[in-house]
Here is the input.
Amino acid sequence: MNDLIINSDITIPESALAFKFSRSGGKGGQNVNKVATKVEIAIHIDDIIASDEIKQRVRKNLSRRLDSFGLLHVVSQESRSQWQNKQIALQKLADMIDDASLEEKERLATRPTKSSRKKRLEKKKLHSKRKATRLTKHFDEE
Here is the structure.
């Protein structure tokens, strides 16, 4: 295996990836009790080869997925093959880091359209009428 190239700005060196293999859960017959097909990849965000700005963005966007040591864990146990699970986990990791590294676009403030304002006011009037009819029914019963 070589370095994992995520995009033109981000590369993960092979030495930064820590693989752990264990038995998968669930169905699989006799194979499940003997073969370690589940793959877990752990990587520290600081080990990624990228600019500090990109690392900060990735750390911020993936903060909920980092453990107390700052490691990002990706697990795959979808296949019965260890090799396939390793490929799936690497792809998940690449997609996750690529998505997290993208810069968020600033939202442009826009005004509500004339029709949307009209619809909102009509809904408010209808809601008000419903409430008013409930109120009069309540007082008529007493």
Summary: Residues 38 and 124 are 55 Å apart (CA to CA).
